[in-house]
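Example record

One chain of 452 residues, shown exactly as stored in the release files.
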Amino acid sequence: MVLVMQADASFWDSLVFDGIDDVDVEGVTAVFGTVEVVARGRMTGAGCPDCGNFSDRVHDRYQLRVKDLPLGGQSFVIRLVVRRFICVSADCRRRTFAEPFSRLTTPYARFTTRLNHALEKVGLALAGRAGARLTAQLGFGAGRMTLLRRVMLLPDPQLGTPRVLRVDDFAIRRGQTYYTVLTCVEAHRVVDVLPTREAGPLSEWLVRHPGVEVICRDRAGAYAEGARRGAPTALQVADRFHLRQGLGRAVETCVAAHRDCLRGSLPSLRSTRPNLEGPRDTSDPVGRRADRKKAAHALVHELLAQGRSRRAIARHLGWGLNTVLRYANAAHWQDTFRENRPRPSRLDPYKPYLESRFAAGCTSVTRLHRELLAENAPVTYQMVRAHIATLRSVAPEAPPPPPTVRQVTGWLTRHPTSSFGGVDSGGAGHMRRFRGRRLCRILARRRVAVDV
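Predicted structure tokens for this chain:
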């Protein structure tokens, strides 16, 4: 569907070209949800971009399609009729040049300046794919590479010489080429990146950027030498991260020297024979079966209280005499539940032998069955297999491995309020009295800087 609207110059100038006084609107059309405005330049001529001479001699015309921000929820496109002028200077190397629209768009661009600013903001906030999905929802869809190119074309923010400078090393891949990153502590912004971790580049950078008062660094000798040569009056300090890192390395070295003490702190092993009898349940039975037994017990005792005999109650209720006797002889309805005790088995005399062999490491059912048959034991393979399966289900867990050096280092240097998993109360008390945790507590409470 094509809808041709009347071009009211004053209306469109105020709505679309507000503040741009060198464009005239010629026509407006709406094509399948896209509003197109045809406009042309208002000036009679333009200056050559090379020599600067003014020219009004038109060489030819062409249309430039420029995409703009959505208008009323619809895509908005501006078709500019661009004139090409002939340069009147005989000494100029440029023969023709296009009419400039510097306030609306840039040369070779397909987006208006306003849309470019919007794409830059979306690219900075969401980058590629996420930004492309958002622009499609907002009505001015752009590809992920378009957004990334807009971000890469933005100039780097210029920061002055920081008063407090952090010097640290980093690598894109650990163990590969390391660089030196310089960061402004107050602004939390990266200032520069040096190609090596040597003292020379750092001292040269400090000489070129005087005014650094405090240098926050680690304990590397190259950084100390570079800071001393480049900024001799600056105060060199260590921040919380490097203090905690240095403490962790010292504690890890100490713990590694006493590695044997970690192995000697294991608890004694429990008995290898499992406890096959589980804890006795002392709670009242629940469920429909318990409700039926409770009601039957109350009914039998109610009939006994009326003076009826046990045989009469059995005939009246249609129950067996033994059932009535069981309810009548039970003082409480809970006593009517029979304990499901295991029945005696032909394997019972040989269970201690099987359990001792299982604890010794022999878990083959075939081998154990053959050993019992050699002793003329009246047992079957299925009986031995069922008992070994029971032993496997309740076998004691293997003793826990001793703590590693890094685990103990973490227990000694982590946040003071953290717990010590897997350490008994005595060991936890010794760790809390460790002097290094006083430093961790100070670092956690406030920001500190220590001279190095």
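Notes: Confidence is low (pLDDT under 50) at residues 266-278, 422-429, 448-452.
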